[in-house]
Design brief:
2 copies of one chain form a homodimer.
Chain A: H1 14-22, H2 24-33, E1 37-39, E2 51-53, H3 55-74, E3 79-80, E4 86-88, H4 89-94, H5 97-100, E5 102-107, E6 114-116, H6 117-126, H7 133-141, H8 147-157, E7 171-174, E8 178-180, E9 191-194, H9 199-204, H10 206-212, E10 219-228, E11 243-253, H11 263-270, E12 274-278, H12 280-283, E13 290-293, H13 294-299, H14 306-322, E14 329-333, E15 345-353, E16 356-367, H15 369-378, E17 384-401, H16 403-410, H17 414-422, H18 427-435, E18 440-443, E19 449-452, E20 457-471, E21 474-481, H19 482-493, E22 494-496, E23 502-504, E24 515-519, H20 524-539, E25 544-546, H21 553-562, E26 567-571, H22 573-578, E27 580-585, E28 590-595, H23 596-607
Parallel strand pairs in A: 3-10, 12-14, 24-25, 24-26
Antiparallel strand pairs in A: 1-2, 4-9, 5-6, 5-7, 8-9, 10-11, 11-21, 12-13, 14-15, 15-16, 16-21, 17-20, 18-19, 22-23, 26-27, 27-28
InterPro entries (chains A, B): aa-tRNA-synt_IIb (IPR002314), aa-tRNA-synth_II (IPR006195), aa-tRNA-synth_II/BPL/LPL (IPR045864), Anticodon-bd (IPR004154), Anticodon-bd_dom_sf (IPR036621), Gly-tRNA_synthase/POLG2 (IPR027031), GlyRS-like_core (IPR033731), tRNA-synt_gly (IPR002315)
Enzyme class (chains A, B): ligase
Family (chains A, B): Belongs to the class-II aminoacyl-tRNA synthetase family.
């Protein structure tokens, strides 16, 4: 997936964006103070582009991954795999990443500071006064520049580095992290890279995976894993980082199949609610999305591939389920100029944040580019078998060796020559030479070369009936940047109470901790009840926290709210008398009294959405 | 954790080992054929030491991780984090990995093939005839060799490489994968490594994590993540690989606390069953473990730290729960010579396999080595605060400046000199000079140096009452090699039926797929029932597979058994009449008939161990 922040803004939601902006400082404060996430190895100074997830961030990430797996892997019976982060060089040469996965860099010739060429020049051009139409034109063209064009631009405007020094020439910089497998040696190429996407591991296992699906298409393969990108100038936060988690699906299909979707998938599209679309066509004249149902967009041809439509609908469900705001999701189609080198169509789910619309999910049609590349680079078969609906008749060129003529000259070699002539691999080449009256050199399996004359062979064409054929499947690839989605989710769920305190209003499904247990005061007889209840919740698979500190109950409520714990269970002196506890709902600020013996079952049923809060219980 | 295969063999279980050996070929065949796991990027040739998990392997791995998290993280309320794989150089210098995390290599001076020095020389020495006591002595000493000793050994025995050529000198080879953050530059040190263990990320976040636990000790932090080790000669299978998943806990505690364990943890140790122990002491005279309860071993001092004992008991539970055979687990204490550089005690859970006893879990006492190192390398406070049980009186040296004498010479400088003299940091140094009658040079905050004479100051000691103090917490680190554990689990659960077919008898908790759905024959009215039931299972969080191929039901049963699916649900023509299906138990080979409407709830209750198979239903 491409990971650029899109600057075009859909103004319908500028109100939301400014709300996110107004809370940005508060969010950053909570994220850091409560260790939701933090710069990695920060005690050693500034390590940009690397972030650690603290306890709350980790649990949130893990719950988002679980929801993703339930919706995408378990419901659709996908094959899930885990491939290695370390990737040998050869497959990345085939995939085009060694040659084409790069940005351009410049450095200040005095300070030696590095800059990403397009970003720094854009910044410098924006400062030029007066801002003429021609400068604006140059700014627009920057992202498509080739290496020499950067140098020309620097010369044209006499641009200097931020420290006032000359720039070096621009040079390409590959964005993959490079290392070596085993000891470095002059004689062996043991270069390896950290994967820039998770897809290649899946693609190189295609034949095994096809076998897991008993040779049948279509089928999808999913992988959640880390990917790496050696950003030249990483930004703060989770938007442009050097190490990030992707959740990717490679969905293999036969482009000639009359129907790509199962009945259940078709039904899914039919019943999917409206989404906001901004097609490539529309972007030529407007940056405003239009609302449409997925099935309408598919019928009218705005979305061209039914699998892409299915995954758009499914992604929308996923994003809503984890708590992204519906009005803040739009689908933008890539313009032909911005597509990754392997893709021929791509729709991004963009999510509105304080930084504008951010690309969080990409659903690309990779076609058969990768499988063909890997096949030709390895000489291995990476095709699937298609049974033809109608057997097809096909003309096939055949060679007719003239045994008597061959034997005259070649004696004992005759059988092997005839066998080689009947081998289809060389026949087209031979026919060309024959037609051109050129020398007929034939290489035998033992690498000897024999010269034939035209009397020794002739050609004919035969019609063959084909009932099946091999082909390269095509691929639709939904790719989710989970870190970015998490960033958006934090912005979307941060809410303010009337008393000016903040809390995260996470859906119960993704809440990092499902509940917090508190003893009203720190007395052993109350504390031991919280410990036992916590253990029973854990055994039922419900992750809870305990806060038996000496802080007031109000203070402890605030601390729990701030990391989005949706329910609080309080053990008090009444508990010792009647074995009941208080259960408080964070965002509603309402509470019920419930027998301890019913707590585990009740919260379990609420959390699995079988029951609605407050169930049979009454507010107190 | 250290990842060596232990050669000493506990002969009590040689029967089990030979059973594992006899099934080894069959296991390898199933693992490869059914894509449980496979060499990464195999179509590009031999990439040793890198393995991909296929669908069944991935699901198994994921279930094992879930069990681990439930037992270790959720039950004990640990803080779970996810730190980056990429690690800047500085923290790994502090942790000792840049200097000491290495093996020794040799190369063949003609072929340039690399060898791990200790391994290849051991192999060559084993071939020497006659095998004298002195050769055996040299073999034993190999693993502790320093670099020059390898060269001497080669000279002594005139050893040649396997291709008959001279060896190079031995040289150290760091086992971390090296790369660069951002563009390589002569002026900046941007070297980074892939983490060799997950611990350092946790340790460098210690202060934040302590804060998450409101400043209180003890507390534990858990992380499941990838670690990397650039093995010189990786072996086949999951035993010696270059990229592997670790599940690690860093448990921080106050070594002076009167009690390290909570009441629940103490109870846990008391009720833990017997385990097999092979202490460092015992290994001097025997390689046979002895059976003991954990609490006995702790009381008698065989296990010295109660946290280590707790984690040994808990680990035993975990291993049994996922399906490792009890008799095939033993606990071996590290000899002082084999400990990692950061550890001062370590107990390994070793599991018996076809390759002998394999280290799968290490529970090490890391002491305060790492926190002290990181603190001194960053000059950052990485201590915790301990409230003293009894306030302690401590003598403190104080300086008494003689204002009049100082003012005579230094006039306006007097206040700053007095302030500097009262600063405790310089006082011990100054007293030494004073006592030795040497020149009293005092550096002022502005870096000016003034010379004092003995009239200008005197010293006294005061008694101060301390109520708390800062200290470096110590750490117990349980570290699980999940890939190795999975390898052992596959060996332990592979069973043979009477009809010579094999199946995995996974505990339901870790079974990759919980059930498989089959339509008796591939007819739309039956198939659609399986699809709907599958969706209902998915929504209840139960991962199932569907096999509606045209193969016979028996063939499909075998295919499902071979990847360890414990239950089969069959939809047949009776289903159309009475809405019931057949539920078959894989290892018992028994089946019941159950209404469709009850299936989801019933399997859910069996899977969460609330109900026993076959419940209220009768075998048919």
């Amino acid at each position: 997936m491409q990971v650029t922040v899109n600057k075009s803004s859909d103004c319908q939601n500028s109100g939301m964006q400014s709300q996110f902006c107004s809370q940005k400082g508060i969010l950053e404060n909570i994220v850091k103070r409560r260790f939701i996430l933090a710069p990695a190895y920060e005690i050693y100074g500034n390590t940009t582009g690397l972030f650690d997830f603290g306890p709350t961030g980790s649990a949130l990430k893990s719950e988002i991954e679980t929801v993703w797996k339930n919706i995408f892997v378990k419901e659709d019976d996908l094959l899930e795999v885990h491939c290695t982060n370390l990737t040998p060089c050869a497959p990345l040469v085939a995939s085009g990443h060694v040659d084409r996965f790069e940005d351009f860099i410049l450095y200040d010739t005095v300070t030696k500071n590095y800059y990403r060429a397009d970003k720094i020049l854009e910044e410098l051009l924006h400062k030029i006064k007066p801002m003429t139409e021609s400068v604006q034109e140059d700014i627009r063209k920057l992202s498509g520049f080739k290496v020499a064009e950067f140098d020309e631009l620097i010369k044209k405007y006499k641009l200097k580095s931020p420290d006032g020094n000359d720039f070096s020439n621009a040079m390409p910089f590959n964005l993959m992290f490079k290392t070596n497998l085993g000891p470095l040696s002059v004689d062996s190429n043991n270069t390896a890279y950290l994967r820039p996407e998770t897809a290649q591991g899946i693609l190189c296992n295609f034949k095994r995976l096809l076998e897991c699906n008993r040779g049948q298409l279509p089928f999808g393969v999913a992988q959640i894993g880390t990917a790496f990108r050696n950003e030249i100038s990483p930004r703060n936060g989770l938007l442009r980082v050097r190490e990030f988690v992707l959740a990717e699906i490679e969905y293999f299909y036969d482009p000639e199949a009359s129907e790509l979707l199962s009945p259940i998938q078709k039904e899914y599209i039919e019943s999917a609610p409206a989404i906001k679309l901004l097609s490539a066509d529309r972007q030529k004249t407007s940056d405003q999305s239009v609302s449409s149902s997925v099935s309408e967009a598919l019928k009218s041809g705005i979305i061209k591939n039914s699998l892409i439509a299915y995954y758009m609908a499914k992604t929308q469900t996923f994003l809503l389920k984890i708590g992204i705001i519906n009005e803040c999701i739009r689908w933008r189609q890539h313009m032909s100029t911005e597509m990754a080198h392997y893709a021929n169509d791509c729709w991004d789910a963009e999510i509105l944040t304080s930084s504008g619309w951010i690309e969080a999910v990409g659903i690309a049609n990779r076609g058969d580019f990768d499988l063909k590349q890997h096949s030709s680079h390895t000489n291995r078969d990476l095709t699937a078998l298609r049974v033809l609906k109608k057997p097809r008749e096909q003309e096939v060129l055949k060679c007719i060796p003239v045994k008597r003529e061959i034997a005259k000259q070649y004696k004992a070699l005759t059988p092997v020559i005839i066998e080689t002539l009947l081998d289809t691999k060389t026949i087209n080449e031979l026919k060309t030479l024959y037609d051109k009256n050129e020398r007929l050199s034939l290489t035998l399996p033992n690498q000897d070369v024999v010269e034939l004359n035209k009397d020794m062979l002739s050609f004919t064409t035969e019609v063959v009936r084909l009932t099946d054929e091999l082909f390269f499947p095509k691929i639709v690839e939904p790719s989710f940047g989970l870190g970015r989605i998490m960033h958006c989710l934090l912005e979307h769920t941060l809410k303010k109470r009337e008393d000016d305190r903040y809390y995260f209003d996470f859906p119960i499904l993704v809440a990092p901790y499902k509940c917090i247990l508190m003893a009203l005061i720190n007395k052993e007889e109350l504390v031991s009840i919280t410990s036992k209840l916590k253990m029973r919740l854990a055994k039922a698979g419900i992750f809870s926290k305990v806060d038996n500190s000496n802080a007031s109950i109000g203070r402890r409520y605030s601390r729990a709210d701030e990391i989005g714990i949706p329910y609080t269970i309080t053990v008090d002196f009444e508990t010792l008398e009647d074995n009941s506890v208080t259960l408080r709902h964070t965002s509603l600020l309402k509470q019920i009294r419930i027998p301890i013996s019913e707590v585990v079952d009740f919260v379990k049923r609420i959390f699995s959405e079988v029951e609605q809060w407050p169930g049979k219980y009454e507010f107190i």
